[in-house]
Amino acid sequence: KPLNSRWFNPLKDLNYRKVLLLVFALHLTLFLAVPLFPIYLVREMELSDQIIGLGNSIFYVALFLGSTRLDMVTRRLGNKRTMALGVIVISFYPALLSQADGATLFLIASIMGGAGWALTGGAVGNFVLEKTPDDSRPAYLAWYNMSLQAGILLGSLIAPVLAGWWGLTIGLAFAAACRFVTGLAIWRTKE
After folding, report:
1. Burial state string for 134-169 with b = 16 or more CB within 10 A and e = fewer than 16
2. What average pLDDT does range 24-48 have in this prediction?
3. Which of 36, 40, 87, 106 sits in a 20 to 30 Å window from 11, CA-based?
4. How far apart are CA 28 and CA 77, in angstroms?
């Protein structure tokens, strides 16, 4: 097909390019910390399997309970700002972990992570669909998928490198700051 086919229409759409950039930044900053969590919990914090399992359980309970409030929050803030708020809340997960010296902050961080992911995960898809024209949905969603996968891949590749340079604690703090700034940027982006 020629380069001007419908497949490339999403890249010609300036507003959708902003969406792709936001989705990329969101997933990049989320995955700057994800590869570091298991190493940090075991090697640095020396948490037992039981505490790590309890933290994961708390994360998913918070995710479930937060999801029950998603409709109320999105009605009030809209999908973009709900997503942004979720990213800001998620930023507290690596921030608290980087300061933790025991199980208590890890368990509190698990609540923040689950609640934040309920907002972010619930709103990101709806935000993208709001910006996707009905007649070109497959092409637009394909580019959305590539954007989020690129963010995940790049974040997962960069995280260990940064942790190797700076150490796990500073790597987590840096990831937290990046998440927070990304949340603010999403919040402030004009529609």
Report:
1. eeeeebbeebbeebbeebbeebbebbeebbeeeebb
2. 93
3. 87
4. 24
